[in-house]
Amino acid sequence: MAVESSESADLPVFDRDVACPCCGYNLRALTTPRCPECGLTFSVAQIRSGVLRWNVPTWLDRCDPWQPHQVVLRSLWELWRGALRPGRLLRQLDLEGPLLPAVLMLVVGVGWLWVLGAALAAAAILVHTVASPAAAVRVAALVWAPRMAVVCLPPALVGVLCALLPFVLGIPLGGWRRAFRLGAYWVPAVCLWGVVPLGVGMLVVPDFALELRWAAPATVLIVAAVALLRARTKALRGWQAGLLVVVLVVMGVVMWGLGRVLPGALELPLWVHVG
Ligand SMILES: [Zn+2]
């Protein structure tokens, strides 16, 4: 909790460890609402709510939505950045930003996932079977990529719901707009965590999609264990940590079920030869 020494002088003092969302500096025991390391200032309202965010517009937010090449390239950049630095996304995404770039991020981001999934699946089919390149691309784009998305999307959506539980990451639930902004950037990025390892795994091991049915729930259970350990350090209440773990375990079971959507082998289906 923050304690203000004076209403007019705005001299808040954190009596607990609070990391600056911009540079990570510990703001404990400051006497002015300004980070001495990076200069980020924060309001009394932010301190009172216990949530410090640095709302930074993304590269996509700043693009001209009527320039398709900007939208396509910048959404790819945001997709990779979100996947590689999820913590940054959760701490610094501008939740009050415009809605149109968020809609574009969701639509074009899912399109990129489809392209990446299809490219990796086509490469795996070419490496492990005797299919022609045209047939491999066709099956990868029409069969593998959509099913890869079906496997990866629900866990990503559950991830957004988890992130929006106020006690998990301290992101304030300020209405559907904030939730949509976060979800639009977060869902494609989390799906990338599923699509790329799945595609690369298929390139290395032909039966990877079959193994995935066991590997995916195992991964989620490991994440649940890590979340539980983190919960101890973040002093979550028992029921909160329990709820998180239950959600993650359910997610593991769902992923095990969804894994059955994927074809079991890379061999091409009959309709390709007929068509
Ligand atoms: Zn700072």
How would you describe this protein?
The longest helix has 32 residues, at 133-164. The protein has 275 residues and is mainly alpha-helical. Residues 1-8 have low confidence and may be disordered. Helix 2 (68-84) crosses helix 3 (86-92), helix 4 crosses helix 5 (133-164) and helix 8 runs antiparallel to helix 9 (238-258). It contains 10 helices and 2 strands. The chain folds into 2 domains: 1-52, no CATH class; 68-208, no CATH class. A two-stranded antiparallel ribbon has the order 1-2. The protein binds zinc ion. Zinc ion binds at residues 20, 22-23, 25, 35, 37-38, 40.
Q: How much helical structure, as a percent, in the residues?
A: 55-70%
Which blocks of ≥5 consecutive residues have pLDDT under 50? 1-8
In round numbers, the mean pLDDT is 80
Alpha-beta content class: mainly alpha
Number of domains: 2
Key features of this structure:
275 residues, mainly alpha, 2 domains, two-stranded antiparallel sheet, 10 helices, 2% strand, disordered N terminus, binds zinc ion
Helix and strand arrangement:
Blueprint: E1 2-4, E2 12-14, H1 44-49, H2 68-84, H3 86-92, H4 99-128, H5 133-164, H6 166-169, H7 176-204, H8 208-233, H9 238-258, H10 270-274
Antiparallel strand pairs: 1-2
Bound molecules: zinc ion.
Summed up, what is this model?
The chain is mainly α and 275 residues long. The protein contains ten helices and two strands.
